[in-house]
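Methods — Computational structure assignment.
A single polypeptide chain was analysed. Its primary sequence is given first, followed by the predicted tertiary structure written as structure tokens.
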Amino acid sequence: MPLLLRFYLALAAVSAPFWRLVLWIRQRQGREDPVRGREKLGYPSAPRPPGPLLWFHAVSVGEAQALVTLLDRLTAAHADLQILLTTHTLASAEALGRRGLPPRVRHQFAPADYPGALDRFMAHWRPDALIVAEADLWPLMLHRAHRAGLPMVLINTHVTERRYRRRRKMVATNGALMRMFDRILVQDADSMARYRDLGAPAEKMAVMGVLKAAADPLPDRPEARAALEAQIAGRPVWLAASTKAAEEPQLMEAQALALDSLPGLLLLIAPRKPGEADSTEAAARAHFPADAIARRSRGEGITARTQVYIADTIGEMGLWYRLAPVAYTGNSLRVPGATLTGKNPFEAVALGAMVLHGPDTGNFADAYARLKAAGGALEVANAAEMARAVVAAQDPAFRAPYLAGAARVQAENQHPLEVSLKAMEALLSQSRPGGA
């Protein structure tokens, strides 16, 4: 075992007071669930159901949402299968609660990475296998699961250039963690090469694609949508989805420029972190009067004067995509001093919204490359280009070829789901006595 990993495990063994203090502080700050917070200390809030149980772990909202379609297919195929989905963040619990989980799928907060919490968690839930989504690798959690003899699979994972540079400093430790997994399914060939360079066994790895691309459309809220459609009253609309604060001044500038050509245009903007919507509103106020800005979290509606509507709620992205014919998939415009990393475009594609995006799409470069090759998305470099594209995209004839190209790519997107399901079937055979 590498020295750094030994050091971490030794530190984890005496870290219970630290974890309890951190969680207490976070709870006082409103960043933890006041009722379910003890789940992070390993105290369950639900009984362990009978039958085989797969433990899926994802860090937060996006990673967990990407799993829902896979979990739905699994429970539909296996009537006796139970699934436990763990995440770390309060936002993820709220989003999953709003969306709703498939039958026999339960959510709990993941245990903190110290022995007491993990021991209580494992003793109660007695999982038959562990599946980690993307790259939330907690060493003690993996070590305890491996020591317990659980089959382990890492799925839908990728390594960005930044993460690769950071992990290059601890190749031995990364390799030791990777070797605990029975199977490693990566999103793209670049990630496979980087993982191999970081010590992951080549014979355990395969490229699966991006699981989010195969996800079912985000859920609708028909009553809320009907009410908002009545307020919008046929006005032209565009959506900026999952935006970062650093790029939002450019989006407000784009809206102001577009209004010169298309009076009545409404911008729906859904910040990536709803808790940071104050900065979104500040960016809007630099261009628009206060009575032209409304926020959903304050219960404010859309009026004839509203030019920017801030959708600062959790779990309603399916609603916003259904209201806008064109969507900027955020976190991708160029901003000084930072490189943004893009957002999954297929949530928009699945709901028939034309995709606009900026040039920085690092985490989803392969997805955008496929869309570009098929003519299924439009890249814009700045606020002026964004404004022109938004105005043009209000015309169905302009959107049509982009939507057709995106639909062709979407039709090919079931491969990641099929690969994941095949891996889960193998895992179930491995974890059940006699493969039953």
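Note: Residues 222-411 form a domain with the Rossmann fold fold (CATH 3.40.50.2000).
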